[in-house]
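<discrete_fold_record>
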Amino acid sequence: MTKTAHADRDPRLTPARPDLADIALRGLVEAAAYVEGVPRRICAPSAPLRRAPRADSGIDTEAVMGDSVNVYEVKDGFAYVQLVHDGYVGYLPAEAIGPAEPPPTHRVRALRTFLYPAPDLKRPHRGHLGLGAAFAALEREGDYLRLAEESFVFAPHCESVAWREPDFAATAERLVGTPYLWGGRTSLGLDCSGLVQLALELAGLPCPRDADQQERALGRPLPLEDLGSLHRGDLVFWRGHVGLMLDAERLIHANGHHMAVAVEPLAVAVARIREKSYGPITSLRRVTPV
């Protein structure tokens, strides 16, 4: 098979650099060396995935506790990785990555929950976990679950890792007011596609990371003429932006105009976005809940 430059592939999803590539890409991309990714897991509450191994590099997305990653290189405090759940490639802080085992047993269903050094709400907290974060609970002590890192979380804020919220529009509604954050995909900060990805993944639906990827992969297309008869859960796409319908008239989306997750009439959003930012709607898609 003829080798191609890795630049010909989507760099967001291709673990390849001129000096290093995933061994599975041997014969497909040019690289000085090929290595097999080492399965690991995120052990920090969240971690920024950057496009370059520098603290001032832009954030493309975030990994959260429990996410599986394949690690190709660790150097100077950064790990070159590919996230398993959506295939995104980039650089994570090495300290945010831990062993792949034990696998997660529980998932956070509250918007946020605190990590404590003991099963005692009066103890100074060590941090927090956000909606969707997953962890291995070693045992339950009263109302608390003990994590491998000797931290404790309030058990009623969590569910089995198999828990799903099939109404992904309801998940999005819970996040109204969350600040807009480019690359964000946690309940502390979200961008437009991060909101959609988090809501759909908690419904058990695999979802790509970025709006253009989601537009190609999710659901089935609807004619643009159906703009007046949309349903709850339908997705509305612009070039570089996505929102989720709550009903036939209201759109929820993380956006830079409100700098937050906000609900507004679709007609208002369409007029503003056409005039000031992403232009006209490019497609409508209907996603079927699990």
The two ends are 39 Å apart (CA to CA). Residues 1-7 have pLDDT under 50 and may be disordered. The chain has three domains: 6-98, 106-160, 168-286. The first strand starts at residue 21 and ends at 22.
